[in-house]
Amino acid sequence: MLLNNALLLVLLVLAVAGGWTLGRSGLRMDMAGRAQLPSQYYRGFNFLLDGEEEDAVDAFTEALAVNEETLDTHIALGSVLRKRGEVDRAIRMHQNLLKRPQLSVVQLHQSHLELARDFIAAGLYDRAEQLLVDLAAQSSEFSATAQRHLLDVYEAQRDWSAAVTIAEELIARAESEGQSAAGHGQPAQQLRGHYLCELAEHAIESGGYDAAKSFYEQALRGQPQELRALMGIVRCALKDGDGTLAMTYFSRMMGSGRRCTPEMLGLLRDVCSAESDSDVYLSSLQQYYDQQHSPLLALALAEELAQQQGVEAARLFLRSTLDQYPSASVAASLALGGLESEQARPERDVLDQLIRNDHGYQCDHCGFSGKTRHWRCPGCRHWDSLHYRGGALEQLNGR
Length: 399
Ligand SMILES: [Zn+2]
Fold this sequence. Notes:
By secondary structure, this protein is an all-alpha fold. Among the domains are: 64 residues, Tetratricopeptide repeat domain (Serine Threonine Protein Phosphatase 5, Tetratricopeptide repeat); 67 residues, no CATH class; 41 residues, Rubrerythrin, domain 2 (Single Sheet), CATH 2.20.28. 67% of the residues lie in helices and 3% in strands. It is built from 20 helices and three strands. A hairpin with a 5-residue loop joins strand 1 and strand 2. Helix 2 packs antiparallel against helix 3 and helix 6 packs parallel to helix 8. The C terminus is likely disordered. The site of zinc ion has 9 residues, from loops.
């Protein structure tokens, strides 16, 4: 905060004094023809000497004329104010810019964009939306950026239909002009998929499984291995009692290369229990493990082997995996098998804890971690950036 204030003040003093030295920036000329610094400049210094930094910033801002040369300084100052949470002051500053006729059209659009960012920061989404819709239609320079911010507005309002429309416009822009033309941020195709999944989940809440299935299918258009939509369709197919369709989509999930998670395993169990063949769960687990040597799958497979072929078969299988795929949770599970006596309870508790701690989700983008999956990271608001992680050994092995 202090550093920001100090930097801000240095920036402003230099900008105002620079404008004076060059004899521009709208400074008045007195009768003798000498440029004079505006009175706000001296007021600013008085505030500074009295230790009143915020008043000093305001005084220097007033002293700084608005024109093509100083616009960037005003924009930078407004951005710092917004980031410091002083949104009201940022809004006043940007509204003031929009009243200046001497700015070019592009600079007015830039000021509009900043004002829309202020409104988003203040939670004034209706006002931000109106500005951004106009900007997207009128500005060629800031159109994609305005549409990206519109997505922020619609996400905040959970207006998923409007968000789908804007995402589709960004996809069309990326297809015709290249990905960079669609602005910064996550690919619009991926965002569109998640908005449609949100619509699907909303439909499920009111029992609309057919509508949900249609949304999931639309989400898969252009990204056929999208995990969230595939999981959604499997659930809808199970609800419909269509075990064949559920297994077809689950196989696509297995082939998507995404790491198996406890919820995916749970889904496989549900899909297999809908089949009449009791061996289908074991054979599916074996097929899945052949594709992905994850400790989670190894432990699930061992549990099923123990039930069908006995504990020794399960132990043999787990031991056979450790040479090639070392895993703390698999080793702990094997060690637990030899600790069944009451005296061994303390070490059993520690190993139990080790296995439990081995599971969780972590965001690739900001590092947020938790025990459950979020399709949108609570830390950084990225979509599908939380991934299932194993323990230290699994991470070393890249699984
Ligand atoms: Zn994150």
